[in-house]
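Cross-posted from the bioinformatics board.
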Amino acid sequence: MSTEQRAGWLYADMEIVEKEDALLSPEERMAEAVEPLLFWFQKNARILPWREEPTPYHVWISEIMLQQTRVEAVKDYYRRFLEALPDIQALAQVPEERLLKLWEGLGYYNRARNLKKAAEETVNRYGGELPASYEELVSLPGIGSYTAGAIASIAFGIPVPAVDGNVLRVTARLMADTDDILKQSVKRRTEALLQKIMPRDEAGAFNQALMEIGALVCVPNGAPHCSRCPLEGLCLACRYGKTDVIPVKTPKKARTIEERTIFAVARGSEVLLRKRPEKGLLAGLYELPGASGYLTEQEALDFLGLEEKDAVVLEKLPEARHIFSHVEWRMQGYYISLRDEAQTKAGFFAERETAREAYALPGAFRAYAAYLFDRKS
DNA sequence: AAATCGGGGTG
DNA sequence: CACCCAGATTT
């Protein structure tokens, strides 16, 4: 629609101010949002550990940790991680076992492996400093379009967008856009739109302002707090009362259920562990040995390669379950205390304290690990 | 485009 | 209980 048409409509119906506003193009509407967002962010930015000294390394670590992970969950991991690995060189050299132990419980463990790979590349190709360009950043392992944009804008002041779930939700509501925000075409379109209106000198603050609005005001769960939003008068979803149906997201596929049997095996002061495969779920982490399906006591002994005389105690444990994003484990457990001479090929024995301190054991095993670690025997 | 990859908070 | 989160990578 041309400026003349818009003006014509406006002059024809001066009373209806909403109509004039409804004629803004997405780009114009987004451009109108820049100053209010920057002003709001100045006053409402949370104090977060990674905002104290936003070096490229600090921003990088925080952004990787924050992928699909809430701010509150990240804080303590972030502090502990930086204490252990204060710079890129330390990260490039850390043994993988120690790295995974630092990441234990945070999930998406390939993030940690990719972090180390990228640190090695940074040392080898860029002299140990993260490159100050979006293109080079996005080519590093674990750094996609969002994270490259976040590091580039926040740490280097490069005017590029950083489009995450918050930004997609806020922009979809601002435009009352009913397209599925999970489609990559919508993400690309949003990036292109934001690139056009990006404030050249405040890209970092602007990107963070959009995300901060999404986290604090235009929230993902429950109704947004539109009365506290600096974009209230500009937002079409708010005006049309559609914040409950926007953003549109296609439902995810239902989880598959897997039945497993887990073995909590003790032998004196030792416990039985097993290293998981290097690919797939919980890759490279440690676990209590297990088998698919529900095993009887005899099948359990057979699986472990034990004879009846080896097991001093063989106790069936309560069922436990653990929910991953796309799989649910329903677990039957056995607590087995072995005589000192007993052997098994189902895993390796580690001293209880060593196992606790040195091996990354995911939370999925917590219920049964408690029988080994939190209980005298 | 769809599936994979964790764990925890929230209504 | 279902949904979502400062996503990236593989298939």
